[in-house]
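Example 3.2
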Amino acid sequence: MAKSLTDPDSPVAAELDDEESSFDIVGWLSGMLYRRRRWIAVSFFLVPVIGAFVLKQLPSRYESEATLTLARPRVAQRFVDPINSISFEDELTAIQSEVLSRKRLIQIIQTYDLYPKLRAKQPLEGVADKMRDDIRIDPVRVSRNHPDITFFRIAYSGDTAAVTHQVTTRLAALFIEENLKTTSEQAASTSKFLESQLAAAKQKLDQQENLIRDFKIRNLGMLPEQAQANASGVFEVRMELQNIAGSVARLRQQRSDLETSVNLQVARLETERNNLLNRLTARHPDVVRKEAEIERARALLRRFRAGTAAAGAEPTLAPEDLTLIQFRAQFESLDAEIERALQAEKRAQLRLNDAQARLNASPIRQQELATLERDYESLKKNYNELLGNQLRYERSANVEEQRQGQYFRLVEPPNVPQVPTTP
C-alpha cells in the first residue's frame, strides 16, 4: 500500500520539512537585519570616515625612481677586450654593497638632513639601516628568453618629493661613480701587476741570456757550430803529423847514410895507414899522424852514433881534417833539423789532442747548450705573452678612459614624484 503524504517517513514529507527549515533561516536573517538596520547604516557611514581620518594622520611618502643600464662597448670586442670580465649582476651586487654601506648612507643623511626625528632617538648607524630599508634596487630582465640582467632601477622613498628626488639622483650618481672608480682601480691594479710580472720575466730572460753567453765563452771551441771546424782541424793536424813523421824518417835516413860515409872514411884511412906500415915503422911520423887522424874520425863517429846530446866533449879536429869537418857540419845540421821536426811533432800532437778533445766534447756541450736555449725560448715565450697582454690591456684601458668601453649609464633620470605613494 502506498505511503500517505502525511506519513513522516515518506520522501515527499522530508522534502517539505527541508523547505520549511530553509524558509525559517532566511526569515530569521531578514528579521535580524531589519531589527539592526540603524546600526548597520551607521557602520557603513563611520568606517570610511574613520579610515580617511586615520590615513590623513599618517605621513605622506614619496618615491623617486631612476633606471640605469650597462652601456655596451662602442669598440668591437674582437679588437679590444673589455677590462671588466665579471657579469653585470655580480658587478651590480658588488657596487650595491659599497653604495649602500653605512658610511655612504650616513654621508647622504647628513647632506640632505634626512630622518631628523629618528636621528634624535637613534644613533646614525640605526638611521642608516632605516634608510637602507627605504631604498629599493630592482634588476630588470628584458624577457624570459633573455634571462641576463641589462637594466636596474633605483628607488628611494622619502617624506618630501624634492628631497626624495635629490636623494635618488645622488644614489644614481654614486652607482655611476663607483662603477667608474672600480674600473679605474682595476685597470691601475692590473697594469701594475702586469708591469711587475713583465719586469720579473725580463729579468729572468736577461739572466738566461747571460748564462748562454758565459757558457759559449767558457766552452769556446767546443760549441756545436764549431764541431765541423774541429773535425777539419783534427784531419789537418793528422796530415801534418804524417808529413812531420815522413820528414823525420827522411832526415834519420840521411843521418844513417852520413854515418856510413864516415865509416867508409875511417876504412879508407885505415887502408892508407896499412899501406904506410908496409913501408914504414909504427913510429914513423907519417904513420903516427895517420893513426891520429883515424882516431879523430872514430871519435867523431862514436859521438854522432851516441847522439849529440848524449855524447861527451866534442873531439878536436885538425885543420887538415877537411873531410871530417864537413861530416861534423852535416851531422850537426841533420841533428838540428831532426830536433826541430820532433818539436814540431810534439806541438802538432798537442794540437791534435786538443782538437780531438774539443770534437769529443761537442755532443755534450750541444746537449747542455740545448737545455739552456730551450729554457731561454720558454722564458722568451712567457715574456712575449706578458708583453702582448700588457699591450692589449693598455688598449683596453685607453678605450675605458675615453668612455668607449662598458660603463653604467643613466637611462631614465630620477623623476620628481607628483603624488605620494602612501598613504
